[in-house]
Amino acid sequence: MRNHPDNQRQVRFWAQDPRIQGLVANVADGVIVVDAEGRIELFNPAAERLFGYAAEAVMDRNVAMLAPPTHRDRHASGMARYLQTGETRIIGTGREVAGLRQDGTTFPMYLSVGEVEFPGFHGFIGVVHDLTTQKVVERELAAARGHLQDIIDSMPSILVGLDVDARVTLWNQAAAEVWQRSAGETHGMAFEEVFPYLAGEIGAVKAAIRAGEPFKRERLPFPARGETRYADVVVYPLANQDTPGAVVRIDDVTDRMRMEELMVQTEKMMSIGGLAAGMAHEINNPLGIMAQSCQNLLRRVSDELPANREAAAELGVDLELVRRYLEQRGFFQFVAGMQEATTRASAIVTDMLAYSRRSASSFVAVELSELLEQVLRLASHDYDLKKSYDFRRIQIHRDYAPGSYEIDCDRTAIEQVVLNLLKNAAQAIANAPDGDPPAITISLRDEGERVRLEVADNGPGMPEDVRHRLFEPFFTTKPVGVGTGLGLSVAYFIVTEQHRGTMEVVSKPGAGARFVMRLPREGRPYAASGPVRR
User: What pLDDT digit, counting tens, does each position of 53-100 carry?
Assistant: First the structure.
């Protein structure tokens, strides 16, 4: 029994009833009873273990002693406010607070407070649950989640978690960067809403989740960064059947596809190069015979050769009448056509030989900006580009970044490449519908060990199937008789094989075409045994 300063306090029933004492003593959580003034009247063994005080040491002392000093004023004001107004923030509920042990350390606890009132007593009972272990587990779980999220975010692939209804539950950093949406923005959104280009596959995705079978689609086109790109999509259903769902991995394979195209194109060039020399020599022989025969046909009907006049006199034939007859029957036009055809065939053979030639000329230092100016002058004055278009009506835009663009190269071969690109660009512009003024833009950029040279036009562009085949030998979209289909393939061969550079084309219908070459600054010609393999 303890004494108030004013009067003798009664022994409460919980101190008299052994059943209540047994219950309170065996509760795993701390139980503390205080009177209306906050003085402790009951302090069970669990509370002793939590706070480090013996029950006798805290009896009749204010319960604020168990709170950190920074919290005591708040505790006192809250108690006073409740007793005066009935307004409370904790009575009848619970909250997480800090407790103060006898040794001065603090620990997290969950405090539930209830009001106790019966004849002769008005006070409060608090139940204290130690959160120390829970907080350790929470920190470890948060660290594990953070580590897992770091792993997921560090992956270059786009990773998206889905629930059984194909709604987003996880969104990694790669997805956020590509789609410019945070994880919070996409959480709970339908998969087809986030990825509309996969809307046609949503049925298969949900079926894969239900069946627990992986689902894969390759090279699906999708819009990103202002262009059409391609992705491989794989759906991996979760192994835990209690929380069905899936992880979707999306890999941008656009660059890989372009590299594969370049590799295939290079292989095509190598294979055709091995056949070109033999074919060229085999074709040259009959071409020489045809050209010589055409020349002899014209000589045989010429009245200026004495041998012709003698033969005509012996036979009583008037050579002038023979020539008039042949002119009237179109003989000379036929022969001229044959000569033109043999000339075109000879040009094709010359282009084919470019595949098998070793670099006979030495590489020299060339300033690309000067070379481009010379080619532009050649194209506008010396080269015959006016059969199907007028080069003088095309605007030429020069976009040369400041700096030196000196490279080691075969000057004549690079001139041939640029001239061919200009010719093709001009022909494409001539076939474009009326719109913006025809223009060709030539750009130079320094990329360290390489120089990037671009030739772009504002022509009609080309579909994907044409772009894929553009560098194939003998492939052309021009009418019969206009092109041989070897110009771009020869240019590709010169850049990639003779100069060990790269060449690609970026184009889509209605958006023009852009040819991009990257030439090494320190070039080396072919070795004596053949082209240098990269």
Answer: 999 999 999 998 998 988 777 766 767 667 666 666 667 678 888 999
Specify the DSSP element, H or E, that contains 234.
strand 227-237
Topology (CATH level 3) of domain 13-130 = Beta-Lactamase (3.30.450)
Q: What are the start-end ranges of the E strands in 359-414?
A: 364-367, 395-400, 406-409
Long-range Cβ pairs for the range 88-95 (8 Å, 24+):
91/115, 91/124
List Cα–Cα distances, 231 to 213, 251, 261, 360, in angstroms.
Answer: 20, 5, 16, 44
Task: Report the CATH fold assignment for 149-252.
Answer: Beta-Lactamase (3.30.450)
Residue ranges of domains in the chain: 13-130, 149-252, 254-357, 358-534
pLDDT tens by residue, 199-217: 888 888 888 888 888 888 8
Fold of 358-534: Heat Shock Protein 90 (3.30.565)
Contact 220, 198 (CB under 8 A): yes
Question: What are the tokens at 337?
Answer: 């056509």
Beta bridge partners of 230: 221
Q: CA-CA distances (angstroms) from residue 281 to 268, 284, 494, 525?
A: 20, 5, 21, 24
**358-534 matches 13-130 in CATH topology:** no
Structural tokens at position 292: 């010589």
